[in-house]
## 1
Amino acid sequence: MTPGATLRAALARAGPPGRLGVAVSGGGDSLALLVLAADWAHAQGAELAAVSVDHGLRAESAQEVAAVARLCAQLGVAHEVVRWQAPPGRGNLQHRARRARQYLIAEWARGRGIGHVALGHTLDDQAETVLMRLARGSGVDGLSAMAPRRRARGIDWLRPLLGVRRAALREVLQARGIGWAEDPSNADARFARVRARRALEALAPLGIDAPGLAQTAGRLDSARRALAVTAEAAARRLLRFEAGDVLIACEGLMALPQETRLRLVGHVLCRIASAEYRPRHAKLAALLAGGAAGRGGTLHGCRITVADGDMRITREWRALRGVTAAPGALWDGRWRVSGPESGDLHVAALGPGGLSARPGWRNAGLPAPTLEASPAVWRGDILVAAPLLEAEGGWQARLEDSPEAMIAALLSR
């Protein structure tokens, strides 16, 4: 099947609406995706819009984005650039840039009523991902690698070229006389993906190649789906929801097979912490062992307590220090606070200080950690409202992640 036919079949399965977004960096994979998606849009009478993220991490990035803009103009595709300024901080810069890219593209798409965004990942990317996750000791979920369709940040992310080799996409561009940019980091062995790419070349004589690894990922994804169905059924029996917390019946949880327990609790931790990946297996297993013995703890930016036959998972307020949003905007990935005014107000965690400013907080019938991690409205250091604690003042806090959505997400990736 040609790359164009593969893309058309993938988009037909995904059933995107009349308007599709495509993320284009200027590299060969995403440029080929743009060209093939433009062919599809013209044939279907659909509307296509492209976005490029300029991270400003390399001097050449502005020129690469400008080249994308010129190609989009030739193809008749609307194109916009969003820019990211790397904030000071520690940790993996590439990981931070990747998360920022997803956030910026999602904001761009939502602002234009685009519900589906296509990404240019290939079969080679899939195989490299399997190798990298093997090195990390990943389980079934990790070795299932990348999904052709994934829901995150309110957007359906499509990977319609997962069945296409990288070289085939270069041939598409060469046939049309289109050049592409090469990111120098793609040859830098400091990065795990580059090492995985070179390892694939070394493993080829053993018959371990990109198509074979991608096929293995597909089989593991079938196993993942079967496990997810079991976990989803358990969630419907065992989970209860209160003020942003999730309570899991301990007796029923401990009666589940270990894989189902890990999957269920890991999923809840991710949803409460608005995290992309669940905790490492060893830490999650240790948490569950402590829970079986009646002990709580902290993990993944969440606080876990065991009492009255339930394991309660709460957002940890310390993980929210410095996280703010304007009233009406999404705060901490879950809560949206609205009220009668905005002005110089901001939303932040209530915290111990805010809780102590409301001496009657026990009347709310909620644990202190739950309230400390709840959204509150502040004017500077002055507490204006605590919606989960008091109904006065016209302020309301609403969870974007409904109980049904949290449970149903167990079946997705």
## 2
Amino acid sequence: MKIDMDQRLTSKKPIRNTQHPIQRYRRWLLAGSLVLVLGLWTLVIRLGDLPAFILPSPGRVAARLWQALHDGTLLYHAGVTLLEVLLGLLAGSLVATVLGYVLARSRLVEQLVSPYLVSSQAIPVVAIAPLLVIWFGPGMFSKVLVCALIVFFPILINTLVGLQAVPENLHDLMRAMRATPWQTLRYLELPAALPVILGGLRVGATLSVTGAVVGEFIGADRGLGFLINVGRGQYDTALVFVTIFALVVMALSLYGLVILAEKRLLRWRQNGH
């Protein structure tokens, strides 16, 4: 028995690293692609002999970034835009999730309301943003409203699809156990639809940044959209680049936070395997 046990222990195969080579060297690939982009950027400027107000060099953009950080301009306007984005994302997500649940529970309400919701998406938010600024003023509320409108539809559709995808036999099981509607939502519908809802939240997190900038383009005296207008009017193209990079960082950060929340909220699925 002891010999057989020793043979089993010694016959175990070593654990192989199944990580894909691309994932293993992801940081190096990202750094290399960044260096390549900066090199092409500099090459285009030198070959085209482009002035700074058309295409500034990476060094000039970096210097303008340092100046905007040093005098607090970038942080102030980025904070304003971030607040608008978070409020709009929160409001749009809550309304979309509640309405998606109502539509998923009632086929009749879905058939009555869905045509209007789909038709509303044919109207670009850019077209109605000036009306919102006129009706509600150039303050923060109109920017938050634009953000909420632009994130509303993707989260609504994902909520509706996720809730309707719950198998009917599981609903029959909950009814057989005499579960209340709240218990059915908490223990069945929400856990089953959460992956799809969070997928819509990923899209909404990035679109909310676009909504804030659109509202600030129309009428604002602060925010990153306002800062882009200032740089454009003063032919300060380096400032425009700095602001665009700040918007990219903001969108990527929000997207990453949603992914982090998704991993934490869906940890039960990994533990269940």
## 3
Amino acid sequence: MALKQVKNKIIATKKTGQVTKAMEAVSAVKMRKSQERAFVGRPYVRSALNILSRLSASQDGLSHPFAEVRPEGKHLLVMVTSDKGLAGSVNSAVQKRVDEIIAAGDSVEILAIGRKAVEYAVRENVTLVGDYINVADGVSLVEVTSMADKVLSLYESPKYQKVSIIYQNFLSTFEQVPTLRTVLPLNPDEIKLMMDGIKPKSGKWSEIENSVGTPTDYLVEPSSEEVLNTLIPQLVAIIIYHALLESKASEHSARMVAMKNATDKSKELIKSLTIKYNKARQAAITAEVSEITAGVEAMGS
């Protein structure tokens, strides 16, 4: 490789490193904000799931249409991904889990949240029943309510056997786990698993108590059915809201780590190219000196 080519490559690599360094800084800021939103929302989601667990296990809850187990039908999958790439394995890990579900023989239809989920459904020829892209990091409750209404309206059809949501659950800056949870029909055991997944391994939020309330039959007015018809959609919206917050925190954490790794690699490559450039330059200088010396000797003789 010529000296000019090596020098141009060093310049290009430096510029790439500057871009990845800036992206790392931006992702770090977004990561802290997203982590805080996810952690602050966890106690609220835990309380909501506790209510849902008690209701779904009560007599009225078990007889509700949203709690009835259906023997057959399609699997409606709410797939949560990011809109952008350069985030490590955040999206590919979710996509692999969906591949496993399809390979297991489930007839899947996807409600996509995030551009990467839409692209996956189109690429794999999976039926797309709806899509939501460019969801803000703050996660608007209006958007979440729209998503929950869409899920509930689709599930009212006997076409679907169950509704699940798959997303990246945030454990730490360096660890995110693709998580699959059943949303409908309501299942106390599945709700307990959701609650267990909310508690982080360490930090101030690790002290959350994940106790599940005892199933209780309540005397309600005007009727249990009316109360459940109002409450269950709100609780489903909370589950989706929680999944979006966890996914956003995972996305920015993974992107920050990926950009840091890219920045470090660019520094290593610059160092390697600089050594190569200096060796080539020294070799060229040595050759020129040798030619001059040989010429002087020839002229002297």
